[in-house]
Amino acid sequence: MIEFKNFDFDDNERYMDHLSRCIQISSNASPLLLLAGREKNKILRGYAEDLCWHKFSADDMEIWGPPVGDWDEIDWKKVFAKHVPAGTVFNFVPEYLLKIWQRELGDAIEIDEDRDMWDYILYLDRMEKLSGKKMKRIRNDRNSFEKNFNYTVEEITPKIFNELWLFHVGAEKNLQDRVDNVELAKDDSDQFLFAIEHWNELKNLFGFVIRVDGQIVAYSVDEIIDETHSIGLFAKGDYKFDGVNYFAYWYDAKVNLERGIVTENLMDDVGEENLRFFKEHLCPLVMLKKFIVTYSPAEKILDVKISSKRDGDNLTLKISGKLNTDASNSAKNEILSALDGVKNLTFDLNGLEYISSSGLRILIAAMKKIRAQGGTMTVQNVGEQVRDVLNMTGFAQIFNLTWRPNI
């Protein structure tokens, strides 16, 4: 199984290396957004099979993010069987990865689509040139802003952070009056504050402000992912200055192109009609579709059966059949999770015909957990073949055992 851990800025370079190998990069995979959301969303990170994995916890539910790395080089059937528990839900799965999973995992996955999660991918050369009928509205608004206002453009640096934050707060309040989902707007502010507080640590952020008569009227912040791609993380404009938003997106394309960036992700619209209307009029090159995927492999027929009976802090677990390696791997979590709050545990092995080393390790782990909870464990009705294994390994001397009566 994947060992998920907390992560910090010192892991960013390793994560970015994995992320840059993805043929589709979702805005949800943003290094900044993952770092900013660690505490609120209880995000953990792990590495396995040359992939970087994340899982999130919210409302007592655990959700995984799509692993990042070179998706085309992975034996997904093997990786899922080894590392992904049945019932795992993945959110924000890009369409390219989904197609691979459909091909390799087949009926083992269930798929749900959510239009509100899709990213808008801008082709920056087209955005800068603004040629053709589709770009007429942006072109006119840009020209109008340039004509009507005495503006300057300034790169974002720490010396203007306080001024920029005050502008953001005002622009955010204006935006909240126009959208329904105030909680997501608050998240945006928290993430933006995190960005300016850790600007130098993140290293791959850049942005600019637009001023009119010296006052900030718009800003844009991007995150460089690789040599040709960026994510448009934050952008705000003062609606009193007609055309400033489209001018800002045009100027952002111009600056990105100068840095060698070709395409840029704009984040999803979360289903807000005003945001969707505005972003669709930016004429995206393509929509990066994202999906919710549930891993539901067909149940493996195991050679073991487990039943339980609990009375207060007393628990009896009956195990029958063969507790071999495969069965042990599948049964371990079920058994150990059932021990929470138990003081007196009894394993009834009356129907158990065989136990492997993996099965013995489950008994040891159970004994440790029960003792840590101040309780005791008894193993009863041990048959002859299982008894021989316990004797040979010495565990007959460790466990509190009773033998199965001879019939």
Feature tags:
5-stranded mixed beta sheet, Transcription Regulator spoIIAA, about 400 residues, 3 domains, Aminopeptidase, alpha+beta, elongated, about 40% helix, 15 helices, 18 strands
Q: What's the CATH architecture name of the largest domain? A: 3-Layer(aba) Sandwich
State the major sheet. 7 strands, mixed
Q: How far apart, in Å, are the first and last alpha carbons?
A: 42 Å
Strand fraction band? 25-35%
> Which strands sit side by side, in order, in the main sheet?
7-8-9-10-11-6-12
User: What is the count of DSSP helices, taking H or I runs of 4+ residues?
Assistant: 15
Total separate domains:
3
The CATH topology assignment of the largest domain is: Aminopeptidase
- The parts where pLDDT drops under 50 for at least 5 residues are none
As a percent range, the share of helical residues equals 25-40%
Radius of gyration: 28 Å
Give the overall shape, derived from the CA principal axes.
elongated
